[in-house]
Amino acid sequence: MKALLLTNDGGFKAQVSQVDEADMPAGDVTVALDYSTLNYKDALALTNKSPVVRTWPMVAGIDGVGRVVESSHPSWKVGDVVVHNGWGLGETRWGCLAEKVRLQGDWLVRLPKGLTAHLAMGIGTAGYTAMLCVLALEDHGVQPKSGEILVTGATGGVGSVAVALLSKLGYTVVAVTGKPQEEAYLRSLGAAAVIERAAMSEPGKLFQKERWAGVVDAVGSHTLANALAQTRYGGVVAACGLAQGMDLQTSVMPFILRGVSLIGVDSVMAPMAKRQRAWDRLARDLDPAMLGKMIEDITLEQALDAAHRLMASQVRGRLVVNLRPSPAPVKYY
After folding, report:
1. 2-111+294-322 adopts what CATH topology?
2. Which residues contact 305 (CB under 8 A, 6 or more apart)?
3. Domain-by-domain residue ranges, the chain?
4. Residue 106: C-alpha distances to residues 24, 74, 87, 118 (Å)
5. Taking burial as the number of CB atoms within 10 A of a residue's CB, which of 29, 118, 182, 287 is the most buried?
6. Is the separation of the CB atoms in 300 and 321 below 8 Å?
7. Over the stretch 304-321, which tens digit does the pLDDT of each residue have?
8. What's the longest Cα–Cα distance across the chain?
């Protein structure tokens, strides 16, 4: 089968190769994949910018959607359409940037009604993580009437989906981006206002004027510290990424003087009930036409170049990798 294979025998190499299906790891469900996607973690692995891969050789790709072709798992039968996110694929186990993948059935989510396979990968781990962040805000009492919601890294995968979701749910969204030329794009997704990344990304005071009722942060570092310092009394910050850095130089003041909650959002090992809830909500709350504005379709052969573009901040929204023999463009708008 064809796969995007990463090797590190005398030097790192990433290339589309023919690999033996017999070399796939053990599992109780085999899936013929229709689509995968490129997330930030995939780009780190494909460009070798961070030690994501822990076992060599490795087939990259943490996300996939396709039809079951073999199953010994009681929950899945041949022909079922399934979605996979996370669980160490592309890190310790062969992933989904391939024509087939062998998985554990306990990791899979059924494709919700209302979503096509293509849209599911337009969402991918980035969009699924955005939904987990929205659920965290909701579960901690943040409502549209609570006030403005800040979304950092807004032109990225997590940020774009978060802006679209929150605006459709009635929230007033303020988007942060380092790409001022993308303001029209962010407003088309529903952002009420757009602010420059520099206003949030430099070191700031540990306690600042209150503004945000909630925050979805995919950036970390100084951006997250400033967001916390500006969050209103009783506000909630959902943190899910570290594009700027994994450091967090802040103080206890937002937490003990304003009752701010900092919620960590993990998508890789999230329990099944939380995963299914997120995917069901995505099928209900994310406008397909809005999602279509975020999607760039690529082939497996184009994935490596796209990963370099993603790492250079030259990608907006979502990259969907078509793994079918004869890719056909899909448009929703």
Report:
1. Quinone Oxidoreductase; Chain A, domain 1 (3.90.180)
2. none
3. 2-111+294-322, 125-264
4. 18, 10, 10, 22
5. 29
6. yes
7. 999 999 999 899 889 999
8. 59
